Amino acid sequence: MTLSHFRHEPKEDITPSRALWFEAPGKAVLCDGSVPAPAAGEVLVRTSFSSISRGTEATVFQGLVPESERERMRVPFMDGEFGFPVKYGYCAIGTVEEGEPDLIGRSVFCLHPHQELFVVPAAAVTPLPQDLPASRAVLAANMETALNIIWDAAILPGERIAVFGAGVVGSLVAYLATRITGTEVVLTDPNLERASLAEALGVAFAVPNSLEGEFDALINASGASAALSQAIDLAGLEARIVEASWYGERPVSLSLGGAFHSRRLSIVSSQVGHVSGRMRARWSHARRLAKVMDLLRDDRLEALISGETAFADLAEDYPRILQSSATLLHRIRY
What we know:
The chain has helices at residues 54-61, 140-153, 168-178, 194-201, 225-234, 285-295, 314-323, and strands at 14-16, 19-24, 27-31, 34-36, 42-53, 79-80, 86-87, 92-99, 107-110, 117-121, 125-127, 160-164, 184-188, 204-206, 215-220, 235-243, 266-269, 305-310, 329-333. By secondary structure, it is an alpha/beta fold. Strands 5, 8, 9, 10, 11, 18 and 19 form a 7-stranded mixed beta sheet that branches. A 6-stranded parallel beta sheet has the order 14-13-12-15-16-17. A two-stranded antiparallel ribbon has the order 1-4. Helix 2 crosses helix 6. The longest helix has 14 residues, at 140-153.
């Protein structure tokens, strides 16, 4: 589909490139556009894969980004405005075809919307390790979020950890937490079908109402305020609760009575836009992302990729992908 107000102005040495746009709440379209030849310090990337993770993209797609958060919710190389039309997305894997000589032919990761080809500053791409499949590197943005949550939760060896929500981010948080020596980690979700995912990742699984005892750190990645309330109920004395969900304009109810004050509980938010304050003095975004690439080498993480769609079919399939409860990370093939 061609929408004239989405097109770039004609330039010399331009290359056609289609992109996915959200035209209105609940409506996605593939739009014809173009990219210029890369200037000095830029690269032209041909996309191999991108990915959809239901949480944030669903909020944008449905037009639920609060006005107060619209500037902070902008992602690199987004086009348009909240609400609509907007070109949005934040995980692209591709091959550098033109630009900086040392990057030509390399597979790279970039925070970029769903688009066939794009031109960005060379500093905006991160080369993939040689042994990391490009098809798995689509988990990079989610792993970066999960790593930041782990830092915000300040998980220590031997602690009891509860993670609420067996979506992509919650599952990655539980996966990382199990790798800290001596931790007892449980991933909880009302969907019993997620038990097989937890098993594939080497994580214990439970349905929410079956949790017992007290926990040292609790992470809510479910997008449900009821899970946050349960985390408060299960938190031990001076335990740490991390709210990793993002609710957009949805209202959230939370009871802070009961033992919340007597147990001296802490609730902190976690958001990937800033490196966790616990690490920021030494860790840049680039260092954090390089570590993410190392962490993605584990073949078990393939279990988080729940489906794949050809880019040509993405506009038609996009609403179904978001609506399906079976969707974890959905991969787009170009």
